[in-house]
Amino acid sequence: MLSEVLLVSAPGKVILHGEHAVVHGKVALAVALNLRTFLRLQPHSNGKVDLSLPNIGIKWAWDVARLQLLDTSFLGVCADFWQHCEDFIHS
């Protein structure tokens, strides 16, 4: 369990030209916006998982005990990818 709050963000983007062309190997023109999406993970001891999207008025909560386990068979494939990312960050 996380002992601290984890906060990550990503910039918004606009694709000005070629959004669907890239699937055919063509180029697209995209720009980052000065707008960000944020994700905050924060531990709670109440046994719930909360999802809050205040900009669109959504606030949901689930009991952790009632959530089903996810299929984790793909994690072996992803492990190599994450290891490469970690190696790159620390190189």
From TrEMBL:
GO terms for biological process: cholesterol biosynthetic process; isopentenyl diphosphate biosynthetic process, mevalonate pathway. GO terms for cellular component: cytosol. Keywords: Kinase, Transferase. GO terms for molecular function: ATP binding; mevalonate kinase activity. PANTHER family: MEVALONATE KINASE (PTHR43290). This is Mevalonate kinase. It comes from Theropithecus gelada. The lineage of its organism: Eukaryota, Metazoa, Chordata, Craniata, Vertebrata.
